[in-house]
Amino acid sequence: MLVAPLHPQENERQQALDDLEVLDTPADPYMESLVRLTRDLFKVEQVLISLVDRDRQWFKARVGLQACSTSRDASFCAHAILDPQKTLVVPDARQDERFADNPLVLGAPNIRFYAGHPLVAASGLPVGTLCLLSSSARRLAAEEESRLRDLAQLVEGYLRLKGLSEHTRQLREAVTREQRKALLDPLTQIWNRAALAHFYPGEQAIASSAQEVIGILYIDLDHFKAVNDSHGHGVGDQVLVEAARRIASSLRPSDLLLRLGGEEFAVVARVTAVDQLRTIAERVRAGIAGKTFETAAGPLQVRASLGAASGAPQTAAETLLAQADAALYQAKHGGRDRVCLHPPVASAG
Questions:
Q1: Which among 60, 266, 268, 301 could disulfide-bond with 256, CB atoms 3.0 to 4.6 Å apart, if both were Cys?
Q2: At a CB cut-off of 8 Å and minimum separation 6, what does 291 contact?
Q3: CA distance 323 to 255
Q4: What SS3 class is residue 47?
C-alpha cells in the first residue's frame, strides 16, 4: 500500500478545512439526501462526502457504509486531493499498486472501484471529496465523470454556505472542535444527551431576546425492542440511523436534535406559538411513519410516539424534558404513533 504524500500546501489546506467548522458536526439531511441520490444515479454501493483531516478521513455524509471515519493512511481520498482539478478513478483497486494491499481492499468494504472528485474550499485548496465506491470493478464513462464533477460542485457550495452561516458561528462560540467529538453520538451522528448542557443556554438566550417560547419534543420509537429481538442489533442500528435522518429532515435549520439514548430522541425548538411545536411534532411523527424502513432484514414499518412541552425561556431543560416525558407516557398509553402535549404556558413573557 502506498500512503498518499501530504498535499504541497498541507498546513494551509488543513486550515481551510478547519475554518469550515464542519468536522465533527451532526449529520446534515441535505447532504444525506445528496449521497443517496448520487448512489442511485451511479448504481454503486457506497457514496461518501469525505473530509481529509490530519490523521483520518471523516465522513460528513455517507450511504452504504456504517463507519463514520477511517485512517488517512488507508484513504483513497488522500490521493484524490493531490490534484484538485481532476477526478481520481480507480477501475480495479486490486490492479493498482497504490491500493492492492490496502486493508479497505483486502477486507470490508472490499473496495474494487473508486471515483472521487475533490471538494475545494474558497481558498482554492482541496478539503475532501465526493466519492463513489463499489465492491465490483468498473469504469466511469466521460458523461458520468462530468455528472460527478457537477455534484461535487453542489457539495462545495453547500459547505461554503454552511461555513458562513449564523448556526456555524454559534457552534464555534459554544464548543471547541475537541468538545464536539465527545458530544456526537457515534452511531447516528447527531448530538448526544451531554450536548444539551452546552447548547441549551444559547437557545434560552435567543428565545428570550426574540420573545419566543422554548419547547422540547421527546421522541420514542414504538416497539423498538421487538426489532432488536426479532432481527438483531445490527438491524436495530439501521433503524436508529434512519430514524435520526428522518427526524432531522422534518426539522427547521434552527432546531436542535439529540439522541438521549437507546431509541429515544429529543428536539429543542424555539417557537412563537405552541401550535408551531405541535406542527413540528406531527411532521416528525409522519416522517417516521410515512414509508417503510429499508433494512438488511427487509422493509420494516416503524412508528414513534412523541411528547411535547413548552415554557418561558428561563425554564430549565430538565424541567421541560420531564414534562415532555410525561406527555410521551400519555401518547404511549393512548395508542402510540401519536403526539401529546404537556399543558403549555401561554407566551414567553
A1: 268
A2: none
A3: 19
A4: strand
For the question of residue 178 being annotated catalytic, the response is: no
Burial (CB count <10 Å: 0-12, 13-18, 19+), residue 107: exposed
Q: Would you state the pLDDT for residue 349?
A: 45
Phi-psi category of 218—alpha, beta or left, where left has phi over 0 and alpha has psi -120 to 50? beta
Strand partners, 269: 215
Q: What cell numbers appear for 124 in the block? A: 482554492
Alpha-carbon distance 281 to 275, whole Å? 10
Per annotation, catalytic residue among 242, 263, 282, 318: 263
Query: Is the confidence at residue 64, as pLDDT, over 80?
Result: yes
Q: Is residue 123 within 8 Å of 117, Cβ to Cβ?
A: no
Residue 348 pLDDT greater than 80, yes or no: no
Q: What is the dihedral of CA 333, 336, 340, 342, to 10 degrees?
A: 40
Alpha carbons 67 and 56: distance in angstroms, whole number: 12
To 5 degrees, how large is the angle CA 24–CA 207–CA 183?
A: 20
Q: Which residues of 332-345 are buried (b: 16+ CB within 10 A; e: fewer)?
A: beeeebbbbbbebe
Sheet holding 256-261, edge to edge: 191-192, 256-261, 264-271, 213-221, 304-311, 339-341
Give pLDDT tens digits for 255-292. Answer: 999 999 999 999 999 999 889 999 999 999 999 999 99
Percent of the chain exceeding pLDDT 90 equals 85
